[in-house]
Design goal:
The complex is a heterodimer of chains A (306) and B (415). Chain A is α+β, with helices and mostly antiparallel strands and 306 residues long. Chain A has eight helices and nine strands. In chain A, the strands form four sheets. A three-stranded mixed β-sheet of chain A has the order 8-1-9. A two-stranded antiparallel sheet of chain A has the order 2-3. In chain A, strands 4-5 form a two-stranded antiparallel ribbon. In chain A, α1 runs parallel beside α7. The radius of gyration of chain A is 25 Å and the shape is elongated. With 415 residues, chain B is mainly α. The chains are: A alpha+beta (306), B mainly alpha (415). Chains A and B meet through α1, α3, α4, β6 and α7 of A and α4, α8, α10, α11 and α12 of B. The complex binds iron/sulfur cluster (3 copies).
Amino acid sequence: MKKHNRRSLLKGGLVGGLLGAVGLSKKAHAAGSFEGYKDRYGMLVDLTRCVGCRSCEAACNKEQQLPAPDKPFDDFSVFDEIKLGQKRRTTEKAYTVVNKYEVEGHDRPVYRKIQCNHCNEPACLTSCFVNAYTKTPEGAVIYNSKVCVGCRTCMIACPFYIPAYSYSSVINPVVKKCIMCYDTRLKYGRPPACAEACPRETLTFGKREDLIYIARQRIKLNPEKYVDHLYGEREVGGTSWMYLSGVPFEEVGFDTHLGTEPIINYVKDFLTIVPMVLTIWPALFTGFHLLATRKDAKKKEEKSNV
Amino acid sequence: MKRLTVNGMSPVDSLFKEEGKILWTVKEKLLLGLSPLDYIAQAVRNPFNWVLAIIFAVGIPVLIGRFIFGLSWVTHSSYDYPWGLFLGWGLFVMVPLSASGFMLGTTVEVFGRKDFHSIERLALLNGLLGYLFAVIFLQVDLGQPWRLVYPMFVSLGPAAVLFLVAWHVATYLSVQVAELVPAFSEWAGWPVGKKFVKKIVLGLTVAGIILSTLHQGALGALFTYAPGKVHPLWFSAPFQWFHFFCSSIFAGLSMLIVVSTLCKTFLKWRCDDEFLENLDRQTLGLAKGCSLALITYFVIKVLAIAHDNDWHYLFTGWGQWFVFEMVVGVLVPLALYATAIRNDSARLARFAALLAVLGIALNRLNTALITFNWKLYQEIPHWREVVIVLTVYSAYIVTYRFVLYRLPILYSWKK
Ligand code: SF4
Ligand code: SF4
Ligand code: SF4
């Protein structure tokens, strides 16, 4: 397993640049392309199986000891809730929500469960300036509320609009999002609560690699049932949660324009100029100064020679 | 104040009272050499103070409320719009408008243009206060403001762009404080400070250039974390930092023109002849710098559109809004600056500067708020959020004025 992923390389570059400017140096990191933790877990969500029973929402609420929801979990009127033109999203009280979509030419509604997708190279993680996020070897992206400053850049960065913020808390507002039941289950190799609660086996828990294989098999065996795409396999560099669907993904609220580059790659253009500015500017501008003031210096010299 | 100077009052501008060699006391200096009663009387006479009083009367309770009832009391606490007016205005608009400090520092100290000397301190002060209040705005917005130093000392995330912003703004703030020590040491009668800073001023200025290049650019780079969220006309991953950096150049210089104009109009009694006599010429000098930066900015804006092939967006509603911003905030100021330089008209340059400042404010608000989440919905700030922004901004103006009244910024200290 490669020890140095791209993140530590970047850190090396930045810290090296910063410290280099004040005369310290830091050992250069070896280059290596990031492949992620090999044995990480994931979840396969098969939208063709989901019936919108919301058992997963209820299980999550219980496992994470979240406050009681505004409407009970067997109240299906929530599917009609539209706020500012948007269907329901994850909030500080709900780490996962299921939404209903009526798709044209499709005889029954399609339901989609959303939660943190536990990206391979999470944008939330790379954007956080206090390192509050960690991608664990098990695949979960967890969060340390003890160091969070509440700048909410991670919410800006998450391409899936997942992290929510407990704005109403005065003393200790924190980011709220799915952590794949890391503390209570995943750490011990057990599936997250939602997966266990699902009566329809919509959610398949397992090693990410195995899930990709299973998904491929399902598409191969039932090509007329599935769209030939595994959402999350490569989106924004790949995610631990992946989706199979029987209808085009954009029709059930997926953003299909995210591309396959990890978000951090967009930031690189800037990150690479940082060490350059730090090292080149001082010499450049001191040089300018010497050139610009040469006349004055000469004059002074002449004067003092007289 | 005008009335008092007509009546023969002259404000404190040296360590000694005119008659004999008696030192002013600190209290007298703070009151500008007026008696407490006279001081209060002149403050009450100023109608602008009444406006401020009303803003503070409404705003301060709301501001206190934010820390008692939390962010959700003053904002719409949107999960989709984590950044609202506090950062949109307080950070993204304030910081570029405060770029004047490093610009003029470079001009005078690095390029040796001593002819800009009499406006340099105003530029430094504009920079310092702008940054200081950007940090105050940030403090209002942070969920846990008491953890402000965490990214510096407790838990470091050095690979994040915001980490750079935090460090650079913090160090640059101290650089700016140091650069203004001479003004303070003259006023306070403390010559050691001035002597010391004189020795290191070149180092300070170069540090200022580095830090400014990086954090002005970094503010733009922050949005490259959200490639799909900002409208493509306001977003271009490879160019974003450069757009922000380049526009901060004319933003800072234009703001300096605007502020110096305000000083000349409302604080004439506090300006000395050197400042007033040189101002027109310096305004035109700054105008030259602005027009160069504006044309560069315009070219790289067009380049970015070409690079990302975003032309088709120009023909949508967003495109019209974009064209409006570019015409009013970039092309018209550019044309006005050019005409002003050709006709030697400082007045025209001042008008151009005002437009350029508004243009930059619009650009930053567009990027951070208006076109952010263009595919979702438009966030309209809560009225309490607007009130707080107004209040903090008024505090900024009051502080600005407080310093200008006293320290030798617009006048030179008499020995
Ligand atoms: S989905 Fe969003 S919150 Fe979850 S790991 Fe990815 S970037 Fe982070
Ligand atoms: S809100 Fe907290 S977790 Fe998110 S980027 Fe800021 S400090 Fe990090
Ligand atoms: S428990 Fe399973 S079937 Fe029920 S809503 Fe959740 S994912 Fe769908």
